[in-house]
Here is the input.
Amino acid sequence: MIYEATPFQKASALFDGWEETLIWSCLQGIMGKLYVDHTITPTAGMILLGDFCFFAGIPNEELVRYKPTSCTQQFIIMVPQTAQWAVLIEQVYGKRATRVLRYATKKEKNSFDRQQLEQVISKIPSGFLLHKIDETLFHKCQKIAWCRDWVSQYKDYEQYQKYGLGIVLLSENEPVSGASSYSSYLEGIEIEIDTKKEYRKRGFAYICGAKLILECIEKGLYPSWDAQNKWSLALAQKLGYHFAYEYIAYEIDRY
Here is the structure.
């Protein structure tokens, strides 16, 4: 049997030492769900938040196969704590599991050059405007497929206003690029950056990222960055992040 864990005290030890902010978001009770193999003495745990799923403890096939009824999506990214979890994911999902490399960055609070970031922001082209995600933009982004992840993990605007933070580049009052919190934890956010297809390769993601980092610094929040690919890592490094390590994940279709 698989159980949803509330509270998390006994199960949280399974994830000790894992510096992943989505895990912290769940264990701090802000967002995400934790599932375990036993409510009293759990030996395996799964944290599910948005498109991500993290496995820890002793590999458990039932947990890898488990899909909560509340999870209606067909795609998910599974992150194994160990090689044994990775083998189990491959065995369970076979050809539906695509093995990928992701790139973690170091969580260094003093790595950003504020003067450089201000210079980046000053390069906004004429006709474009940077704007914080307010209630109007929050609801607008919910309805736009390419930028929905800026706000999709928050149950409502009140939760986003309390924990989230985002910057949008507007053209004629419409979002064309932006950087926002994919998720939040008590000490910071996990950054999500997207640009509308026809506006890419114009440096807009760089501008939005710089502005969001500065906003986080002002609020005493850490803007965590986990890179999906080497392009994302390169952008992170331009903004002041430093590469930490690469890790294996599995993109699961028809989850």
Observations:
- The radius of gyration is 19 Å.
- The CA atoms of residues 38 and 203 lie 49 Å apart.
